[in-house]
């Protein structure tokens, strides 16, 4: 199915301090997970909203996928945690994402 993608980035966005490659990897991982979570949806919707605040820039990646099970929330950023079938994912994406953000003084 085609994904309805909506991106909102303000024209007056301040310059972001961080490592470009790591930021690309973070966004790539979050978008990839969102696309995986929406595979069974008839009308998949992905939203990326960037909002500057006083001290940082907030990027929200959201989707209308299956969500995260409550029992997985405590361990979701640990290595090798996955809800995917064997062979479909290693469970490293969110761990790498969290580490990259922490190394750049950000958070997930």
TrEMBL record:
Record field: catalytic activity: ATP + protein L-histidine = ADP + protein N-phospho-L-histidine
SMART domains: HATPase_c (SM00387)
MF GO annotations: protein histidine kinase activity
Organism classification: Bacteria, Pseudomonadati, Pseudomonadota, Gammaproteobacteria, Vibrionales
Documented EC number(s): 2.7.13.3
Superkingdom assignment: Bacteria
Histidine kinase domain location: 1-108
Name this protein carries in UniProt: histidine kinase
């Amino acid at each position: 199915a085609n994904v309805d993608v909506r991106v909102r980035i303000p024209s007056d966005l301040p310059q972001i301090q961080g490592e470009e490659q790591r930021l690309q990897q973070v966004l790539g991982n979050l978008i990839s997970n969102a696309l995986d979570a929406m595979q069974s949806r008839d009308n998949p919707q992905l939203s990326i909203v960037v909002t500057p605040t006083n001290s940082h820039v907030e990027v929200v990646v959201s989707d209308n996928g299956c969500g995260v099970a409550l029992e997985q929330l405590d361990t979701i950023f640990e290595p090798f945690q996955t809800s995917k079938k064997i062979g479909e994912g290693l469970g490293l994406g969110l761990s790498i994402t969290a580490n990259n953000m922490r190394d750049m003084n950000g958070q997930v």
